[in-house]
Amino acid sequence: MSCWMPECPALSMCRGLAALPITCLERAKDLKTRLGILLHKPELGHGIGTSSKLQLGSRWRDSSREVLEWRESFDQLLKSKSGVTAFHTFLKMEFSEENLDFWLACEDFKKTRSKTKLASKANRIFEEFVQNEAPREVNIDHETREITRKNLSGATSACFNEAQAKTRTLMEKDSYPRFLKSASYQDMTKQATSRGTSKRSHT
């Protein structure tokens, strides 16, 4: 069936796609790819060229290995962008994502070079996460909170170190073990393991 035939349904589809802005089509393709990789759906490989399949397969293998590495240590999880995303999603379900958000804000804060920006960022982070009754107050002790408050008077890249360390320890001992036992992570590890087994059986 050819698109030049007036009554051809494919012609209508072609025209419909052509009428869409290029940015919409690009965003749709990008979203499909991102979701496919995140959810580890191999059907995204269907209908593409051999070269693309090989490249996508490589990404799957890397992703599978990465998912399994998250259970090795909390550090391994935090080193992985997709690991941080998965952990953040889990924390949101537990209504405790402020701990990770604070940790990430501190990591970004340490990269700040301008003294002016350092001071303004420090105050913003303190007001959002550290001070008493902050909008997204993290669970740290009074002593650590006061030490952090005093550090603001001469803000340096290390002024949140103690508070960040306490929050990290809390996540590692409390939220991280629950994440590893969660149904979502268990499902991801099963998929990663099955792909690894399938790969070995075909070699």
TrEMBL record:
InterPro entries: RGS, RGS_sf, RGS_subdom1/3, RGS_subdomain_2. It is found in: Membrane. Residues 182-203 are annotated as: Disordered. Regulates G protein-coupled receptor signaling cascades. Inhibits signal transduction by increasing the GTPase activity of G protein alpha subunits, thereby driving them into their inactive GDP-bound form. Plays an important role in the phototransduction cascade by regulating the lifetime and effective concentration of activated transducin alpha. May regulate extra and intracellular mitogenic signals. The keyword Cell wall biogenesis/degradation does not apply. The gene is Rgs16. It is a lipid-anchor. Pfam families: RGS. It comes from the Eukaryota. One of its GO terms (cellular component) is membrane. Keywords: GTPase activation, Lipoprotein, Membrane, Palmitate, Phosphoprotein. One of its GO terms (molecular function) is GTPase activator activity. This is Regulator of G-protein signaling 16. SUPFAM superfamilies: Regulator of G-protein signaling, RGS (SSF48097). Residues 183-196 have a biased composition (Polar residues). Residues 73-189 form the RGS domain. The keyword Phosphoprotein applies.
